[in-house]
Every structure is written in C-alpha cells, then in structure tokens.
Amino acid sequence: MPETNTVETIVDLIRTLTPAQRRVLARRLRVSGLLQLDDLATDRRRMVVAPALGVARPPVASPQRTPMPTDPPARPRAPLRMAAPRDAANQPAVSGHVVLGPPAPGAAPAPHIVAPLPGQAPETPIVITLRGLVTPTGEMASAEYTLQWPGYAPQAVQMRFGGQPTPDQVLYDTLEKALRAVLARLRDGDADPATARLEVYCPSDRFIDEVIDEAPVADARLQTRHDRVAALLDTFGDWRLVRTGEG
Prior knowledge:
The protein is an alpha/beta fold. The protein has a domain of 152 residues: Nucleotidyltransferase, domain 5 (2-Layer Sandwich). The chain contains seven helices and six strands. Strands 1-4-3-2-5-6 form a six-stranded mixed beta sheet. A hairpin with a 6-residue loop joins strand 3 and strand 4. Helix 5 runs parallel beside helix 7. The protein is globular and about 65 Å long.
C-alpha cells in the first residue's frame, strides 16, 4: 500500500543517519510536537478507565535501587550524550541561589491531583520557566527559574552569578541547576526519571536551537555546558523546549 511504502522509505532513510544525526532528528521531532509517547489507556486516566474494566490493578513494584552517592551519575540510556568533566574552565559561574516563596513545611498536593504510581513521576508535565540575565546597576548579576511541580504551588529560585557572565552562559547554568533540582526531587520520591515528562519555557529561540543541535554553539567556551545540559535532558522520558519568543 502507498502508506506502507512511504513509512518503509522513511525508515530506510533513518537507518542511513549517524547516531549524532539521529539525536538531532529526535530533538527536532520533540520540539515540533511530532514525537509523542504512546500511553496505555489506564496510565493517564486510570481513575476513570480502570473501574470500568472491572479488574483489580496489580501492584507496580518500585524499580530496584542501589545505594547512591550524593551526586550520582545519570542513568545510561541510549542514545545518551556523555557530559564532559568539569574543570576550572567550565565550572558554572553560579555564586549562590535564593528560593523565593518556598512551600510551607509538609505542604501537600492539591486534593484533585491523583498521586503517581509507585516508581513513576507525575502524569502531567513538570514545567520549568527560565528568565534571562538581569544586571541591575551596582548589583550582582542574577537570573531566575520557576519550577511548577504538578499539584503544588510554583516555586521561584533566583540564581546569583559572580563576575560578568554572558546571557547564554546564564541560561545554560540556570537550566542545568533547574534540571538537577528536578532529578533530585524525583529521586527523593523514588520516581524513575524515564517516566517523567518535562516542559522548559525559554526566552531565547537561539538558545533552544543550540540545545537541540539545530544550530552550533555560538560561543565555543560554552560547549561543555551544552553537553551537560543535553545529557541531563536525555535522562527524562519525554522533554520539550517551548519557545516563548522573548529573546
């Protein structure tokens, strides 16, 4: 059939791509919304669908976990971009951070939010909103990201930077900090990052093009930061960078 022949032709063309080219293709499909995960009917609407099936849902065992160091390496998944090691030349310029309006101790999710299954991340996407470099006269350069965890109030975190960082350097360091915060929260809840869905809102279209490899990294000194961010993103099951068009 014509449709079958078309699909086979596309598959044959993808087989000719190098691994790096396939990663670029996958990221472009994610950003365009053409690549979406297939969900089982009971995964996303289990409170509605499962009772209608008339069967008991078997317990889902949490994935086996081994003791982890304070800052464990990302779980290998293919394809995975290996992050370059840190050294004096590529250390983040972050000199501190301030959590603005932290949630109250023992804060509970909104009552209408269904708790995720054991070992899984929230069903709805985790949202990170980046805000770019701010350099008030006579004050330390800063940036901010807001973390919207499903069912909880948004949490804003202000990053402070030493020296005179560039806007792109600030975006890479702020996004890396936010991604590590999300991964730490998932680990605290014994949730597998591969089950998480992530949306990142960014004020710079060019920065997004760099992260998804649609454009080369403009400042070669930031290549290591780019590789660390790409490796962190690849630990999530599904992620998307959303263009806000502000930069």
